[in-house]
Amino acid sequence: VVITVMKLIFLCHFETSFYVRDGAEVSLPCGSLIPSQDKCQYTTWNVHHVKKISAEELVAHGKISPNEFAQANAARLSVTADCSLVIKKVTAEDAGRYFCQQFKSGQRQGSDAVVYLRLTSPLCPQVRKTENVMSCLKYLNDDLRNNRNFLLLAQSNHGELDG
Fold first, then answer.
1. Fewest CB atoms within 10 Å of the CB: 2, 25, 130, 162?
2. What is the rounded CA–CA span in Å between residue 101 and residue 109?
């Protein structure tokens, strides 16, 4: 189950949140691309993990960064043709704020595309999932700004909730 939430922040700056379960695969979109890139050559992805003080570079110039952290996770990371960051087998350690940035001739271009990756856990696994039954998901305590827990409800058929 992947739930996507988008918020409009200030003047046309978008934040996107993905809520995924442990072990899922997720594709984080880069919403601020320089057009006509060759293999995402202008794209850099960084992450600020929930439990870490500083950000880590994951992708530089469209390729997995050579740093120790990125290389330790290289088997689970990839970049798509549209410069999205794919993370396979998501773990709790992957939760955090991801930044897609564009650099051309060493200069940052435009604003960062910010994507929050948050993990969920089933609250009521005893509920049998049918088309008419909602699944309960607890958003784990990894909010970078508010340090709170949230309760999310999603239809088991991945549809939108009414009301």
1. 162
2. 8
pLDDT 10s digits, 32-50: 788 888 999 999 999 998 7
CA 18 to chain centre: 5
CATH 2.60.40.10 region(s) of the chain?
2-119
DSSP letter, residue 68: H
| Contact criterion met (CB below 8 Å) for 91 and 118 | no
For the full predicted model, state whether its pTM sits above 0.90.
no
**Distances, alpha carbon 157 to alpha carbons 11, 134, 154, in Å:** 34, 8, 8
Could you give the CA distance from residue 4 to residue 69 in angstroms, rounded to a whole number? 26
pLDDT in tens, 79-99: 999 999 999 999 988 999 999
Q: Give the list of residues 6+ apart from residue 50 with CB closer than 8 angstroms, or none.
A: 95, 96, 142, 144
